[in-house]
User: Which sequence fits this backbone?
């Protein structure tokens, strides 16, 4: 199971109590922070998400509403005596932006920070339970989306059963993939006697800030959860296009084209106090849509 | 009259709902922002302080808890189509930090931003109603305090009275300074017939982050309102010294030495959830002390 918590959903500047963009995706082992607008560290405290669990931070692009909270979070982790290494992924100029601010404050981080510049599509992180890849999206400046795919074997070993059949632990990896075991006497132990089926591996796609682009449907096809921005309502389609953003209906259209299981929409322009119309409009095209409200949690 | 609103009071990292350091000093014309920790723009909204009234921003030093909210505020002002010029004062490296982030986001500000590097003590800003000077304080990295002095003539002209005596407007400036008027017939119009006495000009000193330094007493002598940091309680005097910070009792001692009218203490370490003991301890030395609580407003 993976779960996604929304820490901020507003476009450009904070408004109506809505924070700029940040999200946390969590699996059993790790927390992955996706974008880090100003105030993200306050939101992490508010929603009781442990900073120490965050091992990877992904920054989509260098508009401030997506990263102005980053250096504050990095230095706070150090003030809290973090020792575990941290991996930050983002557009290349971000490295110098971080370094200049650490240098100005004469800060020596208490942990190792690895910066990974995003340069081309493909896998960028690979943990025990998750594969993360990035893909370019079409915005005013260089901007990346992120695709998270859970890594799961089709079967889970029931150790007690495996021990009863005297199957060595060295064979467990094969069992997880579905293989039967043949013991020294030549007896076949069928796989399903010592394993149980896993639920399917889940996936999440974050499309960052983007103009409506049908081509993205191929990239995010069939994901369990899709985040697509909806800076404007449908009557502002021209403005959305001009600013390389999308509307409610465009986000829902992309979800429909990509045949995803569920859609989350966010990045609402600060000109909208009431964001319910985004949901109403999106649902006319794609019923399984939810608003990315600060603090809301989506379990997949 | 001047009024000071506290937007943040916490040291190093936000904790217990307390934001990092930021304050706004307001006179009748202008708002002066002093330090700008992460989340300052949210705090401005929360406490209904108009961003558009801010004409000057003073950054004491380049530890993140004093300026990580700055670039977000600058870009938000631009997104709100500010046209009025803005003056930012701070340590020299801040200029490149701002520029690098604006460049990375391809941001062209909607207004003129003037950056003034702090290099030596003395007057740095001079508006119709306020003179602002800076002075160095002793912290781990280069750090500046700020002294705000209201500019006020001793007298205010009552225009109706002045017109009755046919005093030309060109003489009003003299009247404000207390001069009598002699009309064409040689008649003396006594000053107090056409003016009223002003209240005294008020002053505010912000000592930023500093080790306890008796020498500061001379710099801030007799101000109406003094802000002095109190990162630690008195039992942590050694730690305070080691980290170039001050204790509750040291802040109060400085206020007493400088014979100020009122003391505000803040910059509480995030290890303290309850900050009331800071007040209790400080008051044993200087009774007229108040806590710099987020949202509190001090009118002088």
Assistant:
């Amino acid at each position: 199971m993976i779960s996604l918590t929304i820490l901020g959903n507003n476009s450009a500047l904070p408004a109506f109590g809505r924070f700029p963009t940040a999200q946390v995706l969590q699996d059993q082992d790790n927390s992955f922070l996706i974008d880090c607008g100003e105030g993200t560290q306050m939101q992490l405290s508010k929603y009781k998400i442990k900073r120490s669990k965050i091992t990877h931070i992904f920054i989509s692009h260098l508009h401030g509403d997506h990263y102005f909270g980053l250096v504050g979070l990095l230095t706070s982790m150090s003030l809290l005596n973090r020792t575990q290494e941290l991996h930050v992924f983002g557009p290349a100029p971000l490295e110098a932006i971080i370094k200049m601010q650490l240098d100005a404050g004469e800060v020596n981080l208490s942990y190792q920070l690895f910066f990974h510049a995003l340069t081309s599509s493909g896998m960028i992180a690979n943990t025990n339970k998750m594969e993360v890849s990035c893909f370019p999206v079409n915005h005013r400046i260089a901007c990346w989306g992120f695709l998270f795919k859970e890594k799961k074997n089709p079967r889970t070993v029931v150790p007690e059963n495996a021990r009863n059949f005297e199957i060595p632990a060295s064979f467990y990896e094969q069992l997880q993939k579905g293989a039967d075991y043949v013991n020294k006497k030549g007896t076949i132990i069928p796989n399903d006697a010592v394993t149980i089926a896993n639920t399917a591996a889940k996936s999440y796609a974050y499309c960052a800030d983007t103009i409506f682009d049908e081509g993205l449907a191929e990239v995010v096809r069939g994901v369990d959860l899709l985040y697509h921005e909806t800076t404007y309502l449908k009557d502002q389609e021209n403005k959305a296009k001009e600013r390389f953003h999308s509307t409610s209906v465009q986000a829902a259209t992309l979800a429909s084209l990509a045949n995803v299981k569920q859609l989350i929409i966010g990045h609402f322009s600060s000109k909208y106090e009431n964001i319910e119309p985004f949901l109403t409009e999106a649902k006319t095209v794609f019923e399984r849509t939810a608003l990315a409200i600060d603090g809301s949690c989506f379990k997949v």
Q: What stands out?
A: The interface with chain A takes residues 12-15, 19, 38-39, 41-42, 45, 62-64, 68-69, 71-72, 75-76, 79-80, 91, 93-94, 96-97, 100-101, 104-107, 140-141, 270 of chain B (CB under 8 Å). The first strand of chain B starts at residue 3 and ends at 8. Chain B has nine helices and 18 strands. The first helix of chain B runs from residue 40 to 46.
